[in-house]
Amino acid sequence: MQQNAVTVNAYLPNARWYDYYTDEEIGFRGQFKLLPAPLEHINLHIRGGYILAWQRPANTTSYSRKNPMGLTVALNDALFAEGQLYWDDGVRIAPDNHQAST
Q: Is the pLDDT of residue 35 over 90?
């Protein structure tokens, strides 16, 4: 780490990668690249082949449950993606094994 740095020399393995914020393919793989890294932006990327579930946050769990959920599907080179979702009902302490979805 370097004090006051506004760039980072990042290496991403040889796979398809997407920008988390824009869902656009970043266009490089298996190499180092100098990325802008201002303090107000975290470089976050999704590796192709995975599905991420998301939900807009709220101030409480009760309000958060009312927000819609979504999926970000990041395709790999074979145009395939997979993932798992565990739905926490927010009430029971013990997990319900029947709630996992693929």
A: yes
For residue 88, what pLDDT band results from cuts at 50, 70 and 90? confident
The span from the CA of 56 to the CA of 58, in Å, is 7
Tokens of 75: 């395709």
What band does 82 get if pLDDT is binned at 50, 70 and 90?
A: very high
Q: Amino acid identity of 38? A: P
Phi, psi of 99 (to 5 degrees): -90, -10
Specify the amino acid at residue 56: R
Nearest-angstrom CA–CA distance, 43 and 34: 11
> Who contacts 81 (Cβ-Cβ below 8 Å, separation ≥6)?
48, 49, 50, 51, 73, 74, 75
